[in-house]
Design goal:
Largest sheet of chain A: 4 strands, antiparallel
Helix content of chain A: 10-25%
Radius of gyration of chain B: 24 Å
Strand content of chain B: 25-35%
Oligomer: heterodimer
Shape of chain A: globular
Helix content of chain B: 25-40%
Largest sheet of chain B: 10 strands, mixed
Number of domains of chain A: 1
Strand order of the largest sheet of chain B: 11-12-8-7-1-2-3-6-4-18
């Protein structure tokens, strides 16, 4: 398997709150949340967005079979202040889906422990 | 007997025709038009201050014109936040429209009380900063608290069938008629959570029914040109089933509902609204049939003691100018043009070139940190600048235009715009200090 990315197993939609980008990621019906959770390793996500790892949060929602990625400060001022072409950061969801799936994440890691 | 509520607009710029189809064929009990983005109300205050524009969103009159006679004949309730900075002005215009359309028995109400500029302390802390409102001085333009459903419910209790508010939470527009219909109290937080969840799912209009979902590949959505907006059938037990008018375009599936549920929520266990802190982490989404999905399991995590206040702040001018390069070497020529403008910014104009943002559209404008492997076949060079000095805003436009005869080979298609902008900051106010008011407009 070459060039396997998150897009092959999951869909996503981005929203914004202030200066933070919030991205919902969910596995397609037949895919495994465990694989998506493993791909969304916080270090890998931070690197993919060229951000400090402490500004990235990934939360897995087992009941809803979904994950929330929060990128703090990624919107460079947010919807009313940013000079970027996409102040809402709506397009960042498509960038997240280009996250490569590593060999280890394809195998599937255990779900992070959370209520 | 279920209660059916639909959404006629998910934002101010939304399509007009889906609401007309919903009212004609949806057999609705109520319809909500969500037309007020967070920054829109500050812009509306700015517009009203000029005296040349109304403080409400005038498109609500077009929306109402298309649905009011039929909706009234069916006994439907209509709620909207399109009143923006002037709900009473919008309600008066709606009253006049109803008479013009020959539906004089429409009862129009305005909900106010969200404007808290006069009562806000200059010492109010600006969320996420060390500053307080005093530090913004005369740049502060407006301050609107997010009201909950109480004023809307009061209007419905007074017999209103068109209720026009300003800054109320988006979900309250949909929660209020459900609460009113079933006679549920705003203090029954569990019930309120059910109603707020319905509002949360409907508030973005077509985004629940297949809008903003398709990728033309794995995510196929039929009929996006005639996308049908969704409605909810709310049961007495608080669960709801989402569907749309048969024959309209779009898609309501587990995936479309899940995206809408979570996409702008940073913590699904604590989604703050004025009426309840919504816990949706235990929600169950179940596809019952084609384009029919039920959602249940909302929980209350309490009610906030404070309401969020959106404060509009004068923020100067945003100047954006673009020029296009096509063909081999287009990125190289765009970079050369950017160097020319930034050099002139300092050498000729004596200004800091760091204030000008440069992006290469078609290359990496959406993600400046990303370096594509391949050269793009064409590039839009985009400059952007924020300034309080309009002559500086114009300077950026002039420098970009001058690239035609003074810049690299083959630039074309210069476009530019300058607009006055309003920034937003947030603060909080005790909920007891804010009083929703309701007024029937005759």
């Amino acid at each position: 398997m070459t060039n396997v990315t998150l897009r092959d197993i999951a869909h996503a939609r981005a929203g914004d709150k202030g200066d933070n980008s919030i991205i919902l990621v969910a596995p397609y019906g037949s895919e495994d949340l465990t694989t998506v959770a493993a791909a969304l390793d916080v270090t890998a996500v931070a690197s993919h967005f060229d951000m400090p790892v402490e500004n990235v949060t990934v939360t897995i929602h087992p009941t809803l079979r979904a994950a929330t990625v929060v990128l703090r400060g990624r919107l460079q001022g947010g919807v009313t202040r940013s000079l970027t072409i996409d102040p809402h950061g709506k397009t960042l969801a498509a960038h997240l889906l280009e996250l490569p799936l590593s060999a280890s994440s394809c195998k599937g890691a255990p779900l992070p422990d959370r209520s | 007997m279920t209660y059916r509520i639909g959404v006629g607009a998910g934002f101010g710029d939304d399509r007009m025709d889906p609401a007309e189809r919903l009212v004609a064929d949806g057999e609705l009990d109520a319809l909500g038009f969500e037309c007020l983005a967070e920054r829109t109300i500050a812009l509306a205050h700015a517009a009203m201050a000029t005296g040349r524009k109304p403080g409400y969103d005038p498109r609500i009159l077009r929306r109402l014109r298309g649905v009011l006679p039929s909706a009234t004949a069916q006994g439907m309730k209509i709620l909207t936040n399109a009143g923006a900075a002037d709900p009473i002005g919008a309600a008066r215009a709606a009253r006049t429209l109803a008479d013009e359309l020959g539906v004089p028995d429409v009862v129009v109400a305005a909900v106010t009380g969200d404007d808290v500029l006069a009562q806000l302390s200059p010492d109010s802390e600006i969320a996420g900063t060390d500053q307080c409102l005093r530090d913004l001085g005369d740049r502060v333009l407006s301050a609107n608290a997010y009201l909950g459903a109480d004023g809307l419910v009061a209007a419905l209790e007074s017999g209103a069938n068109v209720v026009i508010a300003g800054r109320v939470s988006d979900s309250a527009l949909f929660a209020a008629p459900i609460l009113h219909h079933y006679g549920w109290s705003l203090d029954d937080w569990g019930r309120v959570a059910d109603c707020v969840l319905v509002g949360h799912l409907l508030e973005c209009g077509g985004q629940l029914s297949g809008g903003y979902f398709a990728d033309g590949d794995r995510k196929q959505v039929p009929g996006l040109a005639t996308l049908g907006f969704p409605f909810a059938d709310v049961e007495l037990n608080g669960s709801a089933t989402y569907s749309k008018v048969v024959g309209t375009g779009g898609l309501i599936s587990h995936e479309t509902v899940l995206e809408q549920l979570l996409y702008e929520v940073d913590d699904p266990r604590r989604y703050l609204t004025p009426d309840v802190v919504l816990d949706m982490s235990h929600a169950t989404i179940e596809q019952l049939a084609e384009d029919t999905v039920s959602v249940s399991g909302a929980r209350s995590a309490g009610r906030p003691d404070q309401l969020k206040v959106s404060v509009g702040v004068r923020d100067g001018f945003l100047s954006v100018a673009e020029i296009m390069y096509v063909g081999t070497g287009s990125l190289r020529r765009a970079r050369l043009a950017a160097e020319i403008v930034t050099e002139r910014w300092s050498v000729v104009h004596g200004r800091d070139p760091q204030e000008v943002r440069v992006d290469f559209v078609g290359h990496n404008a959406g993600r400046a940190w990303y370096q594509p492997e391949h050269e793009p076949p064409e590039v839009g060079l985009r400059f952007a600048l924020r300034t309080f000095d309009k002559t500086v805003a114009r300077l950026l436009v002039e420098e970009t235009g001058a690239l035609y005869t003074n810049g690299p080979f083959g630039g074309g298609g210069v476009t530019s715009r300058i607009r006055e902008t309003v920034g937003l900051v947030s603060t909080f106010i005790d909920r007891d200090a804010v009083n929703s008011k309701m007024e029937i407009i005759r």
